[in-house]
Amino acid sequence: MGFLVTYPQEKVAPDLQAQLAAMGPTQYLPLRHLTSVTLTAPDEHLIATSDVLVLTSPFALTVYLGHLRNLAPQATVAVLSQKMATKLTNAGVQRLVVAPQENQASLQRVLQDYPGGTIMTWLRGNLTVAHAMDQLPKLQMVQVYQNTWSKAQTQLVADQLAAPITRILVTSPASFQRLQQVIQLVPAKFGQITYYVLGKSTLEIIRDTHQSVIGPTQMKAVLRQMLQKMCRDEAESR
To answer: Which residues form the Tetrapyrrole biosynthesis uroporphyrinogen III synthase domain (predicted)?
Structure first.
């Protein structure tokens, strides 16, 4: 049976791509269109005066390095994963805070210990889920990118899919919701689906629909962990 990964293929390590391909046909279709947004003058001022900038998504990191880094060279950058921290280090960013585990709750616990006067700004997208970061009363937010999707893109994905698909890695609540629209268009291309997710918010949304879903057991290297779990489950099912 086939795999569907709602994540860019070029961001999946070659060894993982090989493991997936060895188990069956694998399709990589990110169900999103990400673009940076033009910031207002007040937003730029907030970023420029921040002591800590919080990044919880790879695209927010891309926007920061490409457009915003020079606005706040003095700021400490707080990130969810060592992978994100490595990209920043390689780009010359030295003041970093890394969550012990790859989730918002872990990062939130680190940031809550900062002094009350700390100016802390979360650089986020329009659909970013704040299931833990919003517990930081001193945290301010700036939208730096837009996550959009259209009916035409839904139809294009439906036309591109090759059947049958039974194991799906879903990377966000928005991707899951968009995938349901695709499934409605071409239900025959999907078998009995098991979903694999990277975090709590997507796990809870899929559980609420009473569908089969599996999440990470450890919140480190979650992408690798879940792709390897897909492969093991497929091997054991044969």
So the answer is: 47-209
